[in-house]
Design goal:
- Keywords: Signal.
- There is one protein chain.
- This protein has 69 residues and is an alpha+beta fold.
- The protein contains two helices and two strands.
- Helix content is 36%, strand content 19%.
- It has a two-stranded antiparallel ribbon with strand order 1-2.
- The radius of gyration is 23 Å and the shape is elongated.
């Protein structure tokens, strides 16, 4: 009986994951593609930077500030 319950449970999980759809992010207005970000982004690079920390989002200024080390 336990084996039958296990088989039914596994089949239910497999069928649920097989029929589940992944949402299309292109239809989501909150999604901003990397290509769209590059149009207005300013990039700063430094070969001495080893890591990044402290992200700050300035909503009023439409900026994303990232600290570098």
């Amino acid at each position: 009986m336990k084996l039958l319950c296990l088989v039914v449970w596994v089949l239910a999980i497999v069928s649920a994951t097989a029929t589940a759809e992944t949402p299309d992010v292109r239809d989501d207005r909150r999604f901003i593609s990397y290509k769209d970000l590059l149009v207005t982004a300013n990039r700063y690079t430094d070969p001495n930077v080893t890591s990044y920390s402290r992200m700050l989002i300035d909503v009023a200024g439409d900026q994303l500030l990232v600290g570098a080390r």
